[in-house]
Predict the 3D structure of the following.
Amino acid sequence: MNTTGKKHGGRVKGSKNLLTKSSKQIVQHIIENELEALPGLLANLTAAERVTALIKMLPFVLPKQNEISIDTPVHQFQPIALTIVQEEPLKIGENG
């Protein structure tokens, strides 16, 4: 294990990782071919299997929703005062 903090071996800093690039292209090609066959594969599944398959594919299509929370205590919120002014009703069809 290197405990010196200095880099020994491996790629030169800033060089492209060609192996990763080619691997991604191969995987992309495989996925594209499988996507063309997907409707036929889904048609051969039972209804329950089809639902399970679709649920497993959802994260790749829809963004994951994260729960949000407000950490500010309620007593720190400031009240808002509103003044409602009622104007004369708009008269449609009259000139002037």
Notes: The mean pLDDT is 81.
